[in-house]
Design a protein that fits this description.
Residues 7-31 are annotated as: Disordered. Helix 9 (340-358) runs antiparallel to helix 11, helix 11 (388-421) crosses helix 16 (488-520) and helix 16 (488-520) packs antiparallel against helix 17 (535-554). The chain has 17 helices and 33 strands.
């Protein structure tokens, strides 16, 4: 054990403890005594803590002076050029340079060293393993979970920052921020509950002022994977918890609202005809003005991310699986995007769109002269409006991806059973398939039975509204069979069709960027890898090839089996 640790615990008073500078010199001195084994070190540390507490109790009974304050520095830690290190625990292998630490605990390890460097300040906070605070960052009254970071002048105050999340340049106050949140620009996040994280805050985004002029009691509930674009302004209170993986477009002002549409786009309207209609509604008689949308309402496009940018979905799946460094929260950080709770939200949103489209029989844009649904017509749309086309596209898109989720569950189930019958026990593979192969099948199978039994809706505790016959006829994506005993071979063929459609969408969504970029920038193609080398597209195509090979190989095997046999 380094001599400084023994000195810190055996000194008679705070004045006898070596100065911060001398602590750094001794802690980093290679000539110091060699570290103890982990078990001996832990036992010695606990004994010393007991001794410290005993000394403090003795002093408390003998004097009314302030208790003695100790700083513990673990073995192989480096503390140098720090103007102030007070009443803190500095774990083994931690690194403190040119920074201040007060009343804080820095957990650290050989392979997960915690750094507080480059003029940063940490006060009354807990930093878990692998955390980095640097670049004149400020952390106060916060918990930074493993492998999170605050740097480049970032400020965190009264914050729980989840694993693999980072705050740089901007400010985060009084918030719970989950894992894998990118917050790397000058922006503001305040009074936000974002437990599932996985989102992004772009430059200039201002997510909330929790003060109404009366009391600082407002807040923002943010759903998993929400992306706040450039210059977004969010007025509290806002509830986006049931709109996971939605995108708030650049320059959008989000009014107080409750929004329940996953994978959607919220953007300011730029359609002149649409705005004229809104103005006409607004200028109507006084009795109807309360039901009219605001003069400049935002457009909500349900399922837009799934329909227009599936590349984003595939990229996110890959990113969360491979970029995470956390060890203790791995299961939470790497959870699949498409899991029961997310799918149930999609089912619920789809049912509400179906109800709005079919609630008045032949009611449509031409018969009403109204080009949109407002919150009066469509529950869960918040203070936004949805066009007829957007509602129909939302129904079809949700259907395709719900079907893909259920059919992929069948695919994983068959592969799992095949390995089980062959006696193959690949620990890593089976653990990776734990979600889709086992846990999710009880959720996926009823969806398949519902979709392929000729029913008009997907059953879900969140989706009580059946789809209308008119809306059913308009959809070109439902591949329904009237027989409940639909053959597995038919389901596998449908899986291949759905997967091919989605992979084509992934390629098209990236192709649009390539075409637009080449039209605007002369050297666009020369400075970027060709589309066929894109790792996300290659991964999507590889998954399609794997499914196609499985279907071709096993289609005959399952010819006589039905879904009810599983």
């Amino acid at each position: 054990m380094p001599e400084v640790l023994a000195q810190a615990f055996h000194s008679g008073s705070a004045h006898d403890t070596p100065s911060d500078a001398s602590l750094g010199a001794q802690a980093s001195d290679p000539s110091a005594s060699a570290p103890m084994a982990d078990g001996a070190y832990a036992a010695r540390l606990l004994a010393l803590v007991d001794a410290v507490h005993g000394n403090e109790r003795d002093r408390a009974t003998a004097s009314k002076d302030s208790p003695v304050i100790y700083t513990i520095i673990g073995h192989d830690a480096i503390v140098q050029c720090c103007p102030r290190v007070v009443a803190s625990f500095i774990g083994p292998f931690a690194r403190l340079e040119n920074s201040e630490v007060e009343s804080s605990s820095l957990l650290s390890g050989r392979e997960e060293a915690t750094w507080v460097v480059e003029g940063s300040v940490v006060s009354r906070s807990l930093l878990q393993e692998g955390v980095a605070v640097r670049g004149h960052a400020l952390v106060r009254d916060s918990l930074l979970m493993e492998h999170s970071s605050v740097d480049t002048g970032g400020k965190c105050s009264h914050v729980v920052l989840g694993p693999d999340s980072g705050v740089a340049t901007g400010e985060c106050h009084h918030s719970l921020v989950g894992p894998c949140v990118g917050f790397h620009h000058q922006s503001l996040l305040i009074a936000a509950l974002w437990p599932r994280g996985r989102g992004n805050v772009a430059y200039g985004a201002q997510i909330g002022s929790n003060h109404t002029g009366r009391a600082a009691d407002q807040e923002c509930l943010v759903g998993e994977g929400i992306f706040f674009g450039l210059g977004v302004l969010v007025k509290l209170p806002v509830n986006l918890s049931h709109s996971p993986y939605s995108l708030v477009a650049a320059g959008t002002s989000l009014d107080q609202q409750r929004l329940h549409f996953p994978f959607s786009l919220i953007a300011a309207s730029r359609d002149g005809a649409f705005l004229r209609q809104c103005l006409e509604d607004r200028m109507g008689d006084m009795e109807t003005r309360a039901d009219a949308p605001p003069i400049l309402p935002n457009i909500l496009r349900p399922a837009w991310v799934l329909r227009a940018s599936p590349y984003t979905v595939f990229r996110n799946e890959s990113k969360y699986m491979h970029r995470s460094k956390s060890r203790r929260h791995k299961a939470m950080v790497t959870e699949p995007l498409f899991r029961p709770e997310i799918i149930d939200m999609m089912v619920e949103a789809r049912a509400r769109l179906q109800q709005a489209l079919g609630s008045r029989g032949g009611w449509d844009e031409k018969s009403t002269g109204k080009p949109f649904f407002s919150k009066k017509d469509l529950d869960g749309s918040g203070s936004n409006v949805v066009t007829w086309r957007g509602a129909n596209e939302g129904v079809d898109t949700y259907t395709v991806w719900i079907k893909r989720y259920a059919l992929r569950g069948l695919y994983d189930r068959l592969k799992y059973l095949e390995k089980e019958e062959m006696g193959i026990n690949e620990g890593g593979v089976e653990e990776a398939r734990k979600f889709n192969g086992n846990s999710f099948w009880e959720h996926q199978k009823p969806i398949l039975l519902s979709m392929y039994s000729g029913e008009a809706r997907i059953t879900s505790p969140h989706a009580p509204s059946p789809r209308s016959e008119a809306a059913e006829k308009k959809s070109d994506v439902d591949i329904c069979a009237p027989d409940e005993n639909v053959k597995i071979s038919v389901l596998l063929s449908d899986l291949l069709d759905v997967e091919e459609r989605i992979v084509r969408g992934v390629v098209r969504s990236k192709e649009r960027d390539e075409i637009r970029g080449a039209e605007i920038l002369d050297d666009y193609s020369a400075t970027r890898p060709p589309l066929e080398d894109d790792k996300i597209i290659k991964g999507a195509k590889a998954g399609l090839v794997e499914i196609r090979e499985f279907v071709d190989l096993h289609k005959g095997t399952y010819e006589a089996l039905s879904l009810l046999d599983l």
